[in-house]
Design goal:
This protein is α/β, with parallel strands linked by helices. It is built from 9 helices and 8 strands. Helices cover 41% and strands 20% of the residues. Strands 3-2-1-4-5-8-6-7 form an 8-stranded mixed beta sheet.
Amino acid sequence: MNKVVVVRLPSLVRARWAHTACSLNQNFNMMEKMSIFSTFCRHFSSNTASVSTEEVTKFSEMNQTWWDPRKNPLIGMNPVRVEYIVESLKQHGITSDFDGRPLSHLKALDVGCGGGLLSESLARLGATVTAIDPSIPLVESAKQHSQRDLQTQSIDYRGGVTIEDLSDSLLQDDDSDHQYDVICILDVIEHVTDVNSMLRAASKLLKPDGILFCSTINKTLKSHMITIVGAEYVMRYLPVGTHDWNLFQSPQDVRERMKRAGLVEVGVNGMVMTHPRLDGTWAWRLEPTDTDVNWIGSYRHDT
């Protein structure tokens, strides 16, 4: 017959054993949490290669003034950007005349949508719009603003999302149903840390016959004097530090980056300010021969 022997340890020994067991359990929990956190960080950093945290923070602070024409020059520039997009799509036979809206039946992706300026224009032209931006405050403002118009209420806004995130999540099974006819990356690449990563993801999301639009600021002495010295330091149209001249890109620079992403240039056009903000508004026009400062280009797959 087996006997059960109960050995009663001294209280000091029992206390030390309890302390050791508790420490082991805490260490295990901490290691487990660190492992989970490490995995999350690896996943997060791999999908947000193009995002600058500093830039996201800076633009998030504009969520209350995004639609103020006195403080956002993109409001004045937007009509010529949209004009270029529509005309380029028409030239490639991609537009539709259904219900008088040229982008009807087209799927459009607005990358770095901010407060929804371009997104709303695309939606009013008939496109089914997905709009993404790493700034959650800006996207929340965009959602609220879009509810003012029945034509813009259906925009699919996604805050805290990058194009790398979208590409990874939508194309896991190489599903072409999740690709877009039109992708717009307007006035964004001069604010990111990895342009190539952004363009590679965009290329994957673009339909074989789709068109990608990109606008930015050329890296010239003229652009430095106008957009930084003049607009930020002298006239105070924009907060100091809005732009970094070192991140500006020429049409030739972008052409080479697009080529590495499997895209070729279709056309490039300059955007010139014709009416500076003296009375609270900006006015712009398209100018094919002047890409010294602001410019916009169109790109397609290299077939």
